Amino acid sequence: MDHIWSPWRYKYIANADPQDGCVLCRIAQGHDDVENYVVHRAQLNFILLNLFPYTSGHLMIVPYEHQASLAAVDAATTTEMLELAKRAQVALEAEYHPGGFNIGMNLGRSAGAGIADHLHLHVVPRWSGDANFVSVVGETRVLPEDLETTCEKLKRHFGRA
What we know:
This protein is 32% helix and 16% strand.
């Protein structure tokens, strides 16, 4: 059996502390943007890195308002969300030169939402071959860059929050 070592992940595992309530609301209301990998804060939404990314640069755009349904948020929130998605795409293209993007939402657990109670939009840069045998057979993702580095690179495209 082959082993893939990722010792930097131990920091996350060792500090895993289940908390009550919505993790996205805690981040929205919190002030530790560095620890939470918040890339940018806008008026109605914020952008952060996904802690369990499909690829390097996997972002989430999250409304401050706690709603599970896209239909429940107002037009200003969705307009800003899509404008931030456009800015995120431009930033990711400039920084990583992906071959394409997946941009979308998983609404509800049945649709694959990991955080079903708080609406969020994923912006995932994609490259040919980024889902290979390691992901399929080993159920493991191999990412070439740590989250701290990715966050710092992308913050430069939005200005400091």
